Amino acid sequence: MQMETGSEPKWTEVEPLLDEAITVLPKKDRDAVLLRYFQRRSLREVGKELGTSEDGARKRGDRAVGKLRGFFAGKGLTLSAAFLVGALSEKAMQAAPGTLATVVRGVGHSSGAALPASALALATGALKEMFWVKARVVLGAGTLAVISALVATATWQSSMHRNQSHAARQLAALPASELRASVSNSDDAPEESARQGVGRKLPLLVVGAQGGQPLAGAGAMASYFPRTWEDAAHLNFTTDELGHCAVPVSDREFEILRIWISAPGHVPKVIDWRKYEFQAQPEEYVVRLEPGGVIGGVVKDEADQPVSQAKLRVSGVGRVSSQRENIGYRDESSSVFSDDHGHWRFDQVPMGLDTLKFFVTHPDYAKAMVFLPLAPPGFTNHVVVIKRGVEVWGTVSNRFELPVFEAAVEEVDSYGGPAVSAKTDLLGEFTLNHVNPGLLKLKIDAKGYKALTRTVLITTNAEAISFVLEEAPPEDKADAAPAPVKTVRLAGTVKDEETGQPLDRFKVLLDERRGTPGPDFLGEGRNGAFDWEYPVMFFNEYALEIQADGYTPEASPPVKVSDAKQFFEFKLKRSADITGRVMFPDGAPARGAEVWLGGEDFGPIMVMTALKKALLYPGMAANDDWSIRTFTDAEGAFRFQPRRSVNRVVVEHDSGCAAVVMNSPNVGTIVLQPWGRITGVVRSGNRAESNCSLGIQPQASASGSPEVPYSHNIQADGYGRFAFERVPPGKHRVYRITSLHGDSAGFYGISHYTPVEVMPGETSEIVIGGTGRVVVGRVNFGSHKFMPHWTTLLQTLARPTTGTPPSAPRASSDANAMRAYHRAWNEHEAKQQRYYFGLKPDGSFVVEDVLPGAYRLEIRVTEPPKDPLDPEGGFAFTPELGSLTKDVVVPEASPEQPEQPFDSGVFTLQFKAEGKVGD
């Protein structure tokens, strides 16, 4: 794609791509953009949230803007930093694009190490989660007295429940006109009635989920987060012999109360409440902990000797914002250590996952990150090998070659694991012990200097590395205090549509823009009514959804925050559960089949796990919500609770798969179709193309019928042979992938689209390429020296665009329109004839298997990145140094020499300093 030059592009060209641009940013860069431009935090506040200095926040923001510029440059849009920053700042005052709103919501309502990545499945980019920094607090002597408080008597419990129920019934019984009159949308929030209850506590009862037995000695940690997520207070509790404990809620300032609960042999939970839920004395909340599975093994060193006291910390299980309760691992309550013989045992394994990620650390060894399979259940023979690592030492100095004292040198771990760190001494020297050889990303920070982040290659113990810091500019004046957060009052009634009676208990969720996935859980309503004050953080339009057992969920129309005096009246319809049966073609029931629900804005996607296995996953579109998946019983039957907007059911089994339209709660019988298979070979001319990467995607269905998700990458072997296993029957496209940056982040090219139809239970064979010829050429850089990073820049040889590219929807929050747009874009791209290649250090290039015809050759080179070895720097923007555009005609190969490459010639690249760019 040719880069545009001249004036800035129009915002209408940039806006449709903003969703994707923000999404592909690494999580810390994404956090910086959202905090700085959407929440309008000062640099000092951004730095505090991200655990860095004010200058570090500035650098992070500048780097994020640079990566955004690089993303748009890859789309043919050249933006200046000033244009992009101005656009972000202006756009932050308007409605956020759909996917962006979801990402922002994650920042506004999540905490902990990570928020979910989806992602990941975004990923290809991997995206799964945003994080907020840990807050600190010093607990006074008064805290110790509170920790010992427990639930007193059952009489008190019964009394407080009656009081709360009576108040809720009074609200539900009021005429709608009187309720509307009490609703205000002004900035002045009503006085919190929760403050009236001196000594009010949230009583908890912790029991086992299977037998309901009280869990004595279960640990609970309560964190009181204010609206700014800063300086949270923490209290620790232990349940008594009856499984009870009580958490204070009336004598503390907080916006969200987050409680982690754990017990040996059970899967721990993290549970959230909001301040407005404690307007009356809360009733007892029963926490049901599922039994934990077991995984274990032995930790050994390189000499095959056991390692004792190695710490294994579990990580990687994310939160679902639409649920009050989630799996919640904490280092203090879920980490385990190896014994004197190196053996370890972890008994908090949740159901439904294929792997768990552990960080393994020991003072005398380099840390290890391992993904351990959970099949078969109860497997306790995993062998984890940790290595001594190497010692890294170096110096930190300033531009006058003087040592910098007490500079902090810390590893930057993109996986969220524990980092190695050290401080420089009087000579500016530091030592990092037990470091894994390979790429090591370090952040160097010292008072009075600009923070520096660099990636270095570590190979031996004898290496010394040095860093030079630049003086920081004088500190800016203190930024103005952030504007007070506006609140909106959410109030309404919830009744049975048929009887008109108020529903006793229901859940309230908020979707920050109509059509976007992943609503946030707001609280539980009682006796047909709710009335809460909710902070407006990152959105100006929202919709509410009500869920109740035995009813079909209902959502409100979208509402503007600026619209005054909103009142919601929900009437829910009773509904049966979603049920059906899965059968084999011979009529036998399919036991243990994996059944998924899909709808307008949710459903399963396919991801490649850490163990290189393709699996279905709820993904970001379903907010990582595993409740859309279940398994069939011995009779092949399955059951889901009613869910809004379900339109399809997807089934997977070792023996086959199916996808059907859902027109009623009773899906009926679903018959599995046997898996198909695709095999073939990749060729360039008559020669097999070895070890190349391949991908697959479904072709658009003319009937619009549902499909089993299938999209992942594989690699051909040394003879160009490949096989896609467990392929759903239907029409697909296989294509070649050109990547010049290995497994690191960066752009890649797709070419050689090859259609294929797969029949149930059969193997389809295809040949990718083989009808073109090799094109070679060379670029002359004149007096300029070749830069190593130019080998990682993707260059193109392409025919003129065929057909008109689809236009992006005006409203990116329209989920249906966005899905249709992406499908249309994939179909448009599959019709293009485009080849990708890289440059060699001598300027030569090779393009494989090019069909005869007229093409346009486009080559561009850039300035080196600030951190050339950074594996996350593939999307970073770097200014262009030079480029060329040249028309090339590739002729038919001679029958006498069919394998003779076509030499396209020598092309002189014009650098910007030399005048007009290009030929």
Structure description:
The protein has 919 residues and is mostly beta strands. The chain folds into 8 domains: 11-124, no CATH class; 142-173 and 188-289, Carboxypeptidase-like, regulatory domain (Immunoglobulin-like); 293-385, Immunoglobulin-like (Sandwich); 390-469, Sandwich (Immunoglobulin-like); 486-572, Sandwich (Immunoglobulin-like); 578-671, Immunoglobulin-like (Sandwich), CATH 2.60.40; 676-769, Carboxypeptidase-like, regulatory domain (Immunoglobulin-like, Sandwich); 773-914, Immunoglobulin-like, CATH 2.60.40. The protein is built from 11 helices and 56 strands. Helix 1 packs across helix 6, helix 2 (27-38) packs across helix 4 (54-74) and helix 3 (43-50) crosses helix 4. The two termini are 16 Å apart.
Main beta sheet strand tally, sense and closure: 5 strands, antiparallel
Q: How many helix segments?
A: 11
What is the percent of helical residues? Answer: 10-25%
What is the radius of gyration?
A: 30 Å
Brief summary of the model shown:
The chain is mainly β and 919 residues long.
Key phrases:
five-stranded antiparallel β-sheet, mainly beta, globular, Immunoglobulin-like, single chain, 919 residues, 37% strand, 56 strands, 8 domains
How does the SSE layout of this entry go?
Blueprint: H1 11-23, H2 27-38, H3 43-50, H4 54-74, H5 81-91, H6 98-109, E1 117-120, H7 141-147, H8 154-173, H9 176-181, E2 201-208, E3 219-225, E4 233-238, E5 244-248, E6 256-262, E7 269-274, E8 285-289, E9 293-300, E10 311-315, E11 325-327, H10 331-334, E12 336-337, E13 343-349, E14 355-362, E15 365-373, E16 382-385, E17 390-398, E18 408-411, E19 421-423, E20 429-435, E21 438-445, E22 452-458, E23 464-469, E24 486-496, E25 505-511, E26 520-526, E27 529-536, E28 541-547, E29 554-555, E30 559-560, E31 568-572, E32 578-583, E33 594-599, E34 605-608, E35 614-617, E36 629-631, E37 637-640, E38 646-653, E39 656-661, E40 666-671, E41 676-684, E42 687-688, E43 693-698, E44 713-715, E45 721-727, E46 730-738, E47 749-758, E48 763-769, E49 773-780, E50 795-798, H11 815-830, E51 834-837, E52 844-850, E53 853-862, E54 880-890, E55 902-908, E56 910-911
Parallel strand pairs: 2-8, 9-16, 17-23, 24-31, 32-40, 41-48, 49-55
Antiparallel strand pairs: 2-5, 3-4, 3-6, 6-7, 7-11, 9-13, 10-12, 10-14, 14-15, 17-20, 18-19, 18-21, 21-22, 24-27, 25-26, 25-28, 28-29, 28-30, 32-37, 33-36, 33-38, 34-35, 38-39, 41-42, 41-45, 43-44, 43-46, 46-47, 49-52, 50-51, 50-53, 53-54, 54-56
